[in-house]
Amino acid sequence: MHYINKATDPKIEELKKDFFSSLNSITSHDPELRKKKGIKILEIGVGTGVNFQYYPDGSHLIVVDPNPHFAKYYDENRKKFPNIHSEEILITTGEEMTGVADNSVDVVVVTLVLCSVGDAHQILKQVVRVLVPGGKLYILEHIKEFNPDKYWIRSVLQEFLSVSGIWPFLFDGCCLNRDFHSALDSAGFSKVEAEKFYVPLTKLLFLMIKPHLKAIAVK
């Protein structure tokens, strides 16, 4: 669902800029990066790199994506951000990112990815594994309607479009009826700050994904 960006609604850029702003205050666990005031970021489901613009100068990136064709477009976009260093590109899923070492990254970023993965719980276990002690997960995902009494039409449509397979077929496996709050709580983080909210999307097609979850979880 990475097509949900500033091109589809300018308010998304403002929202994400605010969400990622605290990345600038993170100190790396790696002594060499710390000297350079850089941090190591792992992004799962990076796609073409729509989040690059929010990363601090000196960020070192490890990226994971199961699409074998993404690397070319990722590389083209990365060249627009010379302040970011690409360390490694892994063609695999978040559930199987065994190529990332234990306790090796300062930050993990997951945005609009868990809606289409096979096992969100397993991905979050992997996230805990690769984060350094005190490292942070930044997660921004659309979720199932959390106020079904008020927005019952959206709730019913989300369930129907997901269970029928219509929405996953149209949008690359994306499901509308998932909620990741419980998975975050059970993943083994020491602290989770999460908020459910409605993204200010205005286009009719995107009304199904207005309910969102944003969270910062600390290992």
TrEMBL record:
Signal peptide: none
InterPro entries in alphabetical order: Methyltransf_11, SAM-dependent_MTases_sf, Thiol_S-MT
Pfam families: Methyltransf_11
Domain Methyltransferase type: 42-139
CDD domains: AdoMet_MTases
A GO MF term: S-adenosylmethionine-dependent methyltransferase activity
Taxonomy, superkingdom: Eukaryota
Protein's name according to its UniProt entry: Methyltransferase type 11 domain-containing protein
